[in-house]
Specification:
The chain is mainly beta and 280 residues long. It has 3 helices and 15 strands. The strands form 3 sheets. Strands 3, 4, 5, 6, 7, 8, 11, 12, 13, 14 and 15 form an 11-stranded antiparallel β-sheet that branches. A hairpin with a 2-residue loop joins strand 13 and strand 14. The two termini are 31 Å apart.
Amino acid sequence: MNENTFQFSWFRQSAAGFDPLPFAQSLWRSDQMHGVAVSGLLARALEHAVRDAGRTGLVPARYHVDLFRPARMITTTASARIVREGTRLLLLDAVVEQEGEVVARAGATFLAPSAAAPGEVWASSAERPTPPPAELLPPAGEHHVPFFASAQPWSDDFGDHQNAGRHQTWQTAVPIVEGEECTPFQAVASIADATSMVTNWGAAGVEHINTDIDLALCRMPDSSRLGLRALDHLGSDGIVVGTAEVFDSAGVVGTATVTALANTRRTVDLSAGVESHGSA
């Protein structure tokens, strides 16, 4: 293994659990972890439980995360258990804990793939999102700052994209644990937290904080390089719902939805750019 292969990761595994690395720090507060890291750790626990059950042929079709307590920058544990097992599905729950207290939980449904049904069903005819032009991107597998497109064209300059345009992003997922490869499921589960960055980032910055993540997939992503494009943003009385398309190099793989609360007292202002991972 090249010593630089896992130059970036969210956690380092220790005897006590998982120690967050500086890269896991939220933009909201310096002592708080961002949802990308928390969601990735939950996905890793779920994936390990599926593997241990000998059901590696299943596809993660539904993934829901509740982010109900701020995860701090301290040693963290994650575990998952099977709730229901059938020939065509596996239902699981997972939790992330700190100092004996649950700070986030997840539920997932893994399904067995089969032949497609032959009948015709309505589907959107809208133009689907595609990755940025290849000449803008570093080589596959190389870590990079997330790229965004909005009212401005694709770039990795965050300051260009603080506007009210329709946002989309393209990212290479960061490994969850130092020394481990980021699997496609871990990648999409962690990047799904960035749905807020395409649905809730506007002209004044990111003014909402996620309380949950919902991810629905029709297939496994083709790699850890993934994109999100805003489908809608709905809000009333400080509560918003943002929905995005999730896509890889081959096309759309599903949708991601976040419910969020107005958090204007700690607005993340990205107008001057950012040197971090770009997730609130």
